[in-house]
Write a structure and sequence with these properties.
Blueprint lengths: L7 H6 L17 H16 L9 E4 L3 H9 L7 E4 L8
Parallel strand pairs: 1-2
């Protein structure tokens, strides 16, 4: 999300502090890299070497609550939307 205004001089005067905002494109530059890293990620997930614990899981019918939590910065970590595969109306 958007950050509040940050005065660069305040950071500099506090001892050479800085902030960064990495993006996916900073780490994956080609489609081959994306495929390779994605395969590695899914391998870690399927072998339980990487476990992701969501902050909250919402049913698809609660998608507006999930958006509200994001917009109001009430969401910490990951939020998931659950889609019931046995319910074709979702």
């Amino acid at each position: 999300g958007a950050l509040d205004l940050i005065d660069p001089m305040r950071l500099a005067n506090s001892g050479s502090l800085y902030f960064v905002r990495p993006r996916l494109n900073d780490h994956i530059s080609t489609r081959d890299d994306l495929i390779k890293r994605s395969q590695h990620l899914f391998e870690l997930l399927t072998t339980n070497q990487l476990v992701i614990t969501p902050h909250r899981t919402y049913d698809l019918s609660e998608v507006s609550l999930a958006h509200q939590a994001l917009e109001m910065r009430q969401s910490i970590g990951k939020s998931l939307l659950h889609i019931d595969a046995s319910n074709p109306t979702q």
